[in-house]
Amino acid sequence: MADQTRWTEIEHLPEWDEEFYHIYTAKKFGKWVMIKTLRPEYRDNPEYQSLIEREFDVRYNLAHPNIVMINDFEEIPGIGRCIVTDDVYGDSLRKLINEKRVTMAHISQMRHQLVNAMEYIQTNHIVHPQLKPENIIFTENIGNLKLIDVGFEQRPSLSRRQLSDDIYNYGVVLGEALDAVGSTDPILRRVVRRCTDPNPAHRFRDLEQLHLALEGRSQKRFYIMVAVVLFVMFLLVAWLLSPLRPAPAVSGTGFIGLF
Questions:
Q1: pTM of the entire structure?
Q2: Longest Cα separation, the chain
Q3: What is the C-alpha separation between 167 and 170, in angstroms, rounded?
Q4: Average pLDDT value for residue range 120-124
Q5: Cα 162 versus chain centre, distance
Q6: Which residues contact 257 (CB under 8 A, 6 or more apart)?
Q7: Cβ atoms < 10 Å from Cβ of 19
């Protein structure tokens, strides 16, 4: 099949397949990697050939600890033109949910690492597929969260609708994970309800606001605290400059007393 001196132990992973791609695990020169290639029905179509090329171009320079990293784009005999990524073999959130193996440790990673990855994608204006449990992987040995199927198009900016959809889909995924672990955490349940509000105007405005809510804080409370601190500082300065301020004690030598 493939060059046995370069590629070994190539194995198709049907449960990892994406809409237009087949996914494989393999060793390249003895190092485990993942391979992503067009499904056979799309392989000779110029439109989909352009799709996989654009995905490589867009994602090659992305670097985030919770997003699968792309390393190469090459022709593999017997498989075709492939995107080669880091090895992220492990369990998808979907599999963990189906097998009732979700833990609060997974929830904690979704609370922090997943939102950070989403923020990175939005900052780079990447048009990406819908966030869903199938796209969230917890690696086999360490259990790190990795987001796969990140997207293939970069734009000058993302629309307000796209940003709101990200928040909605995050709420759906988080809610499903909470159901799987049986958690009734009031903060997280409140976050889920607001993320998935049918009216986009009632959802979190952006991921920064979502971050604060996941920590049990709000921008409103933060701004109130800042305003209070500034007001206290203003009163202190005004008092120091005021003629009503008590005069400093003066010693018999004419110097200001220190004690």
A1: 0.79
A2: 100
A3: 5
A4: 96
A5: 15
A6: 248, 249, 250, 251
A7: 8
Burial of 175 (0-12, 13-18, 19+ CB in 10 A): middle
Using only the alpha carbons of the chain, give its radius of gyration: 26
Tokens of 83: 């995107």
CA dist., res. 22 & res. 36, Å (int)? 6
Average pLDDT over residues 79-96: 94
Nearest 5 degrees, angle CA 35-CA 36-CA 38? 140
**Dihedral (CA of 29, 31, 33, 39) sign:** positive
Q: What is the pLDDT of residue 151?
A: 87
Give residue 256's pLDDT: 42
Render 89-158 in DSSP notation, one character per residue: -EEEHHHHHHTT---HHHHHHIIIIIHHHHHHHHHTTEE-PPP-GGGEEEETTT--EEE----SEE-S--
